[in-house]
Every structure is written in structure tokens, then in C-alpha cells.
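Q: May I have one protein plus its fold?
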Amino acid sequence: MGFFGKLFGKEEELPLLDPSSPAAARLGKFNAELETFVAKMNDRLEFVPADEAVYCFIGKPPAMFGMAWFHDGKEHNLKSLARDKGLSSKKLQNMSMRLGEAYAKYMTEQKFSHSVGGKNVIVHPSDGLRKDVVEIIHVLE
């Protein structure tokens, strides 16, 4: 996307996610939660589907972003994780920094467009990004 594309808000053209792909199957397990979430969001959403959860970069990663994930029928985010686990703000900042670094490491890998609840979102089926995100959120907590 060139300068004028960015200036006038033109989105990059991504191929559609294959409905028979493993990433589509992982997303499908969380369809109800994702539709509810997407309906209330106005920011750019980039989903990283995993086996037991779906992770979402919200906004403009790797610099300015939030993070949410869906597991066991519930929506989670860094704020709720900090509250539930008693994490310090320094630990939370470290996690956010590491998530941004993980995103940057895999940002050139193939991404796909996918419709959730009538809205287009981006899907990263990257195994490396998925593994890093899971480790940062769940192992380092």
C-alpha cells in the first residue's frame, strides 16, 4: 500500500481465508464469541487462531494495539489477566512489549481476509506467531 493509499484509508487487499483451512476451523469453534466481539469493535482486528483459543490484536500492531482472546466461552484481555493473576504494571508492560515484538517478527507472513458477523477481519494462520502469543500470555504470566 502506497502513501496515498494510507492517506486515504485504503486497506491492503488480502486473499480470502480458505473455509476448509485449519485456521478457519479453529475460528469456527469460537464463532458466537467472535461475532459478539466484532459487533462492538470499530478498530482493526487481526485474529490468531489457536487450538484452544483465538487471540486478537486490536488497533495497529506492533506499536499501538490492545489484545483480547477467547477461551472457554469467555473474552479475556490483558487488563482482566492482570486483575485475575495479580500481575504488576511492569509485568503487563513487558507482556505487551513482547506481544508487539512477536507480531513484528511474523508480520510479513501471509495474512488472509475473513468475514465475522458481516465485518472483514484479518487472520494470521502463522504457527510461529500462534506459539509465541500462547507462550507470552500463558507461560510467562
